[in-house]
Amino acid sequence: MSISTLAATDVVLAAGPVLGSIGISGLTFSAGLLLFLGLRGSDRVKLDRDKAGGFGIGFSTLAIAAGDLWGDVVRGISEVPTSLIRAFDMGNIGLGGIALALTILTFFPKWKKLIWPALLSISAGVIYGQAGGIWGIGVGLVLKLANIAGGL
User: Fold this and answer.
1) Within the chain, where are the H helices?
2) Which of 13, 34, 71, 87 has its CA 20 to 30 A from that of 127?
3) Do 94 and 86 contact (CB within 8 A), yes or no?
4) Residues 71-121: pLDDT tens digits?
């Protein structure tokens, strides 16, 4: 084992007592706070459409994992665009199709207000977890990393 490996391990192990217990709810709150501050125009958190979309997906994925109030809020947000997409009666659009539509609506239009890609991506993050398949791979990865970070 090299010296650099030992030092990196010591730093990771020392982070736990320094940060205290974070938990999934703490990570969810932090991600939501960063998204909110970025949308409000913080000088430290600079958001564009893609970053707002990424923060929204990360926030909603963590919120579903945290459950309770966090999960209820993002599920409520996700019901609005999902219902609108299904309302156009274009056949049997499954959850994978809704996930694809939300992703396109989040990342492709030129949005003037960043609140729209943020809300659409929060919805997308919820639907990714429900759709499964390739959509669930990213959700699983985020949840695994959140569990590791939350346990520090």
Assistant:
1) 3-19, 23-40, 49-66, 68-87, 95-107, 115-131, 133-150
2) 34
3) no
4) 899 999 999 988 888 888 777 888 888 889 999 999 999 999 999 999 999
* Four-point Cα dihedral 123, 43, 48, 94, nearest 10: -10
Q: Cα separation of 71 and 63, whole Å?
A: 5
Tokens 């499954």 sit at which residue? 94
Residues 6+ apart with CB under 8 A from 88: none
Both tokens assigned to 102: 């939300």
User: How far apart are the C-alpha atoms of 53 and 29, rounded to whole Å?
Assistant: 17
Nearest to 147 by CA among 19, 22, 20, 57: 22
Burial class of residue 137 (count of CB atoms within 10 Å of its CB; 0-12, 13-18, 19+): exposed
On the CB side of 27, CA atoms within 13 Å amount to 26
Q: What are phi and psi of 20, to 5 degrees?
A: 75, -170
Q: What is the pTM of this model?
A: 0.78
